[in-house]
Design a protein that fits this description.
mainly alpha, 30 helices
Length: about 575
């Protein structure tokens, strides 16, 4: 039995690092840690059985201490899993279930679970765990109540947040600054500025407390989200007088974010410099706000030094950092150039994107999310690297992300530019299969791919158009221009006339300029066939919903440029 007690080294001391001692992936580390703890639990069961048999070598006084240490080991494991960014929801539930099947969960266990619910923004789980705490007879825990309120506040459910606050106040809970901050956050997400201002006014009537700066930050964040920059800055400038608190990094970060939302990049840079001059050290979130603001201007020359300064301060970039860097390149002048007018700078964009991805993956262990994949696809497609875009698309699907309409549009436009009609059709079928409603831009891109095939596949455009109308997708003027361009290149003059006739009956909201651009497209495409051009022009008065004397100037110029004489006003 003494040898059996020696085997409890894990429960006695080594379990303070249950995950760090196991190499490999997160799932493997977690599995090994649970196996180790289960082994210790089995040992304790054997010890307890020996004690029940009254074996003389056992000491009953050791057993509660061993159980307490093992429970602490499970609690430490739960904390490790809750804080680990690689942990999945099921990982947390497995560990918590392991505790509940062996011991009554302690207050620390439940606080860790509330933190987990806050991390995954799951208000239902947070409320259930708070209920467990109240039913277990523990004294009301202010930290737990505030954490649950924060979880509900982030969901924007102001009514639910108010109901919970009323309930806990009836059983002795005293609101503190974090409570006020949570309620203001709930108002922010719900879009209720007036209620937030009432909560803030109520705080002004209270005795000053240490955490008041948290409430100021929440109120500034509300003003920032609702694009009320002046009120945000007024509050920042008056916080010392109202609350006798100093600005901290969170206050400056919110102020920078407010200027970012107002598209005031210079204001962001000025605030950042002011913060440094006051000796306040920026966080990763501060740098991310600054990089996101600069990214909207496409100023790569400013983004890179900011990123290097962040690394030089020993801060670890996250996925938002790399998304901002990619956006800076995407919105740069090089990123706005189409594949038809490629420049050396634009040709370097895919290389830069790949290098950023490699740095994110292999240096910092950051896996792309849907936004990053979408940005990468845009960069690859605009630079003509369709194969890379498709590989990125496949990689994204393998990672479990479902592409959105923006992603499909970028891919469809890239395939359309290369005339890959059949691939465009397959991609359109994939969109429908995934339950996404295709818009007119997708159908237009499919038809546009036929421009590279001239007359060989021209009539396929009609099939695509009929499919779109069957799906009740509303056409725009660009759709008709592309459709008629394809048909005109195939010399399907009568089909063009029929399409315009049907369009006039269907599209009652088009302006004369819209009809002018549609008809002019056919005239321009028929320049190589003057006879067909004249035949089509002669049919125009019977097609358009307005008389020839009201033709827009653009249509009159198109008709006047015809090689064969044509009287514009007939």
């Amino acid at each position: 039995m003494r040898r059996a007690l020696v085997r409890f080294r894990l429960a006695r001391g080594s379990t303070s690092r249950p995950l760090a001692t196991v190499a490999g992936s997160f799932s493997a580390r977690l599995s090994d840690s649970l196996v180790q703890l289960q082994r210790e639990w089995n040992h304790l069961a054997h010890v307890q059985a020996d004690l029940q048999d009254s074996m003389p070598a056992c000491s009953a006084a050791d057993l509660p201490s061993l159980h307490k240490r093992l429970h602490q080991s499970y609690t430490l494991l739960l904390k490790s899993v809750v804080l680990d960014p690689e942990a999945h929801v099921n990982d947390v539930l497995v560990v918590f279930d392991s505790i509940c099947t062996r011991y009554p969960p302690t207050e620390d266990d439940l606080l860790h679970m509330i933190s987990w619910a806050r991390r995954f923004e799951n208000p239902d789980h947070a409320i259930q765990i708070l209920e467990m705490m109240l039913q277990s007879g523990w004294p009301l825990n202010a930290k737990a109540c505030n954490r649950v309120l924060e979880v509900i506040a982030r969901s924007g459910d102001l009514q639910r947040c108010s109901a919970l606050l009323d309930r806990v106040c009836k059983i002795g809970f005293q609101p503190d600054p974090r409570t006020y901050a949570a309620m203001i956050t709930a108002c922010e997400r719900a879009g209720d500025v007036a209620t937030a201002e009432r909560w803030f006014s109520a705080l002004l009537d209270c005795e000053r407390r240490e955490g008041d700066v948290v409430v100021v930050g929440a109120m500034m964040s509300l003003y920032a989200r609702h694009h009320r920059l002046q009120e945000c800055m007024d509050l920042m400038n008056s916080m010392g007088r109202l609350f006798d608190v100093q600005r901290n990094v969170q206050i400056y970060t919110v102020a920078i974010d407010a200027h970012r939302r107002a598209n005031c990049v210079d204001g962001c840079l000025d605030l950042f410099q002011q913060m440094l001059e006051e000796g306040i050290h920026p966080t990763v979130v501060t740098y991310n706000c600054l990089l996101s603001a600069v990214a909207t201007t496409g100023d790569v020359q400013k983004s890179i030094p900011i990123y290097r300064d962040m690394i030089g301060r020993g801060l670890r970039p996250d996925i938002v950092t790399f998304q901002a860097l990619l956006n800076a390149h995407r919105y740069s002048p090089a990123g706005k150039i189409t594949s038809m007018t490629m420049t050396p700078e634009a040709r370097e964009l895919p290389l830069i994107a790949r290098s950023l991805m490699i740095e994110a993956r292999f240096r910092y262990g950051i896996s792309p999310d849907l936004k990053m994949y979408t940005t990468l696809v845009h960069i690859f497609t605009l630079s003509g690297h369709t194969v890379d875009a498709l590989m990125c698309f496949v990689d994204m699907m393998a990672a479990g992300f479902q592409p959105d309409l923006t992603m499909y549009s970028a891919l469809m436009n890239a395939l359309s530019d290369q005339g890959a009609f059949h691939q465009c059709c397959n991609l359109l079928a994939t969109v429908k299969r995934n339950g996404i409603t295709a818009n007119v831009q997708l159908y237009t891109a499919v038809i546009a791919s036929l421009r590279h095939h001239f007359h060989r596949l021209a009539l396929h455009a009609l099939a695509i158009a009929n499919d779109m109308f069957a799906e009740r997708v509303r056409a725009d003027a660009k759709f008709y221009r592309v459709l008629l361009q394809v048909l005109a290149r195939g010399r399907h003059i009568q089909t063009c006339v029929d399409v315009i006739t049907a369009a006039v009956a269907r599209e009652t909201s088009f302006s004369p300029d819209d009809w002018s651009s549609i008809v002019s497209t056919v005239i321009v495409e028929l320049q190589r066939s003057p006879d067909d051009q004249l035949r089509f022009a002669q049919a125009i008065p019977t097609l358009l919903p307005f008389p020839p004397e009201e033709y827009p100037i653009s249509l009159q110029e198109a008709l006047s440029s015809m090689p064969q004489p044509y009287d514009v006003v007939r």
